[in-house]
Amino acid sequence: MTEFTLTLIDARRIQQYLFTANELKQILGASELVERATHDWVFEALSPLRHNIKKTNPLTFDEQRSIDAAETDAELIFAGGGNVGILFRSFDQAKEFATRYSRKVLLEAPGLEVAIAHTPVPWDKPDGMARAWKQMIEQEMPRRKDSRRTTQPIYGLGVTAECVFTGMPAVRDWAEPGSDVRRLVSAEALAKLDCSLEAKKRLQESIAIESFEYPSKFDDLGGMAGHARYIAVVHIDGNDMGRRMQRYLDTAQTNRSFIQCMRSFSNRVNEAGLLSMQKVIERISKALTIEDGEWVIRDSAGGDEFVNLCENYLPIRPIVFGGDDVTFVCDGRLGLPLAVQFLDAFGEQMLEDEIQGFACAGVAIVHTNYPFARAYDLAEELCQTAKLEARSFDPNGARISYIHWHYNKGSVTHDWPEIRDREYKFAGGDLALRPLVVRKLDELATPSWRTWEILINQLQEFRGPAWRGRRNKLKVIRDSLRDPSEAQQLIGLHGPLPAIAGLESQDISSGWYDQRCLYFDALEANDLLVIPGGGER
Questions:
Q1: Are 284 and 532 in contact (CB under 8 A)?
Q2: Same domain? 418 vs 300
Q3: Is the dihedral of CA 52, 351, 250, 114 positive or negative?
Q4: What is the pLDDT of residue 16?
Q5: Nearest to 332 by CA among 234, 466, 200
Q6: Which residue among 178, 183, 319, 428 is the one 20 to 30 A from 448 at the CA level?
């Protein structure tokens, strides 16, 4: 009987590792370390064995070096999304690999947690891989994660100096290149800082830009000196990807076809995510114009606001990209349209299961000095809220892309249910329409008046001739919408609000319909949103 060993690596608590610091450079360095831990160091630990990796950048495989071949010791199945799957000829080889790999992670990426699990694969059985994968996902990996010690470790006996970033024991005093200011940093912070330049290099190689650079500081994302600066933390997650992949794997009839399905699905999702991020960068590049010797992005929806570049830095910095789990930061005024651009680009691509790529986005717009970890938590919670909305109209939750957002103008709260109940929920209903549909399959019935297109149409109307120069009146109407009867009087006094497709026969003179306010989202975003040209939206 032929029995191989399936090994799965799972990088744990990635978000906690990435976003604990409030410094973009450390976040970027942490992202680079996670990338190395799930790619470069895996390949390095495999190097003593005969494997199927032909090229690492981009990752390509030698199809002649499958685990079926006698001269192959290990076959890399996939690497992406913080997970790596490898098939070893023997359990001993799998253990030796895990030892080499774990040592590398412990030494090079302090604080990063990875879980490694093994399970046997009865290769003589046609469904051996399918059974092993189910065993891995349902039992082995959960057992490995649950068995980890949760006691608080003793970081440093006799060390009293603390890291200025993490509060952990300091190991070195560190200075920014070109600066005389030295700061005490921990091993984790030092590893992240040392990798920040490599993170920039990797991004440049993945999504090249000419004449511009990607920023490494939040202050370089744009804005004008003397004005409040806001950044948008954008988190995007693919819909139902785990179940989609499993349904695709269920079509495999043999162990070899199971591996091919797993590899092709993972590779295609990674390609789709990277291409979608490239489309976002292209959208920015096409919108750039020179005015008075400076690069700016003008609003294409009739607004007076514009984004001016800080030197030659693009107003966006991808942090996690290449896959369906994406995070980037940008100038706060660009967060929503760039998130929509990604969702559109992702939805235009067909994945291996012959279904379009659908995802949901959460966007937290916060001040540059707002704790980044809290902003990310808010963006992630908004994304999950959008996914719940998608499932209410589609049981699979896979065929609608929603966008959800919140403008934080000073509150320290990052819990969305609390924010919603305090700022948007009233006895008469919900002040916000969001989350809004960006794209969906035509056969799915969702309210036609709760879409991104409706919001853009409203913005264009509010910025058009009928309301131009009446910004204060719009703010008064916005504030009055909390009371439908008061809003109805003001709307009648100052002029009708934009018509809404699908509600032509309904009485919306109060600005409300079906216990939802129809105009608050657009009026709130009117002074805070720039729609860059160069794209359809």
A1: yes
A2: yes
A3: positive
A4: 85
A5: 234
A6: 428
Q: Rounded to an integer, what distance in angstroms lies between the CA atom of residue 163 and that of residue 140?
A: 36
Query: Are residues 72 and 65 in contact, defined by beta-carbon separation less than 8 angstroms?
Result: yes
- Please report whether residue 481 resides in a domain: no
Q: In the structure encoding, which two tokens stand for residue 357, read together? A: 């790529």
Supply φ then ψ for residue 208, to 5 degrees.
-70, 140
Other beta carbons within 10 Å of 153? 7
Can you tell me the distance from the alpha carbon of 82 to that of 101, in angstroms, rounded to the nearest whole number?
15
Residue ranges for the chain with pLDDT beneath 70: 146-160, 223-228, 397, 412-413, 492-493, 534-537
Structure tokens at 263: 């590899």
Task: Decide if 415 contacts 380 (C-beta within 8 A).
Answer: no
**CATH code (residue 50):** 3.30.70.270
The answer on 239 and 125 residing in a single domain is no
- 183 belongs to a structural domain: no
pLDDT-above-70 percentage for the chain? 94
Burial class, 395, CB count within 10 angstroms (exposed 0-12 / middle 13-18 / buried 19+): exposed
d(CA 41, CA 33): 10
Among the listed residues 143, 46, 137, the one whose alpha carbon sits nearest the alpha carbon of residue 83: 137
d(CA 309, CA 165): 28
* DSSP-derived 3-state class of residue 128: helix
Least Cα distance to 199 among 315, 83, 320, 105 occurs for 320
CA-nearest of 6, 80, 92 to 49 is 92
Residue tagged 């709130």 (tokens): 524
Give pLDDT, residue 483. Answer: 80
pLDDT value at position 509? Answer: 84
- Is 488 part of a structural domain of the chain? no
Structural domain that includes position 375: 233-448
Asked if the bond preceding 110 is cis, omega within 30° of 0, the reply is no
Q: Which residues contact 338 (CB under 8 A, 6 or more apart)?
A: 232, 234, 280, 283, 284, 316, 328, 330, 532
Q: How many CB atoms lie within 10 A of CB 147?
A: 8
Q: What's the pLDDT score for residue 104? A: 96
Q: What residues pair up with 532 in beta bridges, in sequence order?
A: 299
Beta-carbon contacts of 170 under 8 Å, excluding residues fewer than 6 positions away, are 159, 161, 162, 163, 184, 185, 186
Is residue 411 domain-shared with residue 292, that is, in the same domain?
yes
Give the Cα separation of 302 and 260 in Å (integer): 50
Q: Indicate whether 15 belongs to any domain.
A: yes
Question: Into how many domains does the chain fold?
Answer: 2
Beta-bridge partner residues of 462? none
SS3 (DSSP) at 254: coil
Choose the final residue of a domain: 386, 413, 448.
448
Query: End of a domain among 117, 146, 175?
Result: 146
Cα(267)–Cα(323) distance, integer angstroms: 9
Distance CA 65, CA 52 (A): 5
With left for phi above 0 and alpha for psi between -120 and 50, is residue 143 left, alpha or beta? alpha
